[in-house]
Amino acid sequence: DCCLGNHPSHGTCYRAQCYKTADAFVRVDGIPQEKQSVAFQSRLGRDPWLQPYTDIELPRLAKRGIKRMLVICPAFVSDCLETLEEIGMRARETFIEAGGESLELVPCMNEHPLWLDALENMTHDFLSLSHPSQNQGGTTQDND
């Protein structure tokens, strides 16, 4: 699978980034490879989308005997209808109806202070590169 290796194009490849983020999460938490899987949501209508599909993968895992599921949505930095309603509610129902016992959705980064600091730093770096003349030798102003 081309998305599982390393390639320069992965910096802009949604599928590769999802796999890489999920892999980093399970490695940090010490989750064994055989106890994790990746599936894709966001399918609209009959148009094909990245596979495996979440609504097919969750019942398959429940029927395989998986009872408890912890779900992350690595493509999102904040919770939205797709994460809260489609995964947190509908996917939970699908998993439990297929024989699972619980499905827990890990909240996205939302307003976590570390994420906000990172976002501020990225914005500052971007603005510094976009407008270098405005950031040289300037003064800061404190409104307190």
Descriptive tags:
mainly alpha; Rossmann fold; 2 domains; two-stranded parallel ribbon; Ferrochelatase; Coproporphyrin ferrochelatase; lyase; iron
List the helices and strands and how they pair.
Layout: H1 14-28, H2 54-63, E1 68-71, H3 81-97, E2 102-105, H4 113-130
Parallel strand pairs: 1-2
Helix pairs in contact: 2-3
Report what the structure shows.
Pfam families: Ferrochelatase (PF00762). InterPro entries: Ferrochelatase (IPR001015), Ferrochelatase_C (IPR033644). This is Coproporphyrin ferrochelatase. One of its GO terms (molecular function) is ferrochelatase activity. Keywords: Heme biosynthesis, Iron, Lyase, Porphyrin biosynthesis. It is a single chain. This protein is mostly helical. The chain has 2 domains: 1-36, no CATH class; 38-131, 3-Layer(aba) Sandwich (Rossmann fold). It contains 4 helices and 2 strands, in the order ααβαβα. The protein has helices spanning 14-28, 54-63, 81-97, 113-130, and strands at residues 68-71, 102-105. It has a two-stranded parallel sheet. The mean pLDDT is 85.
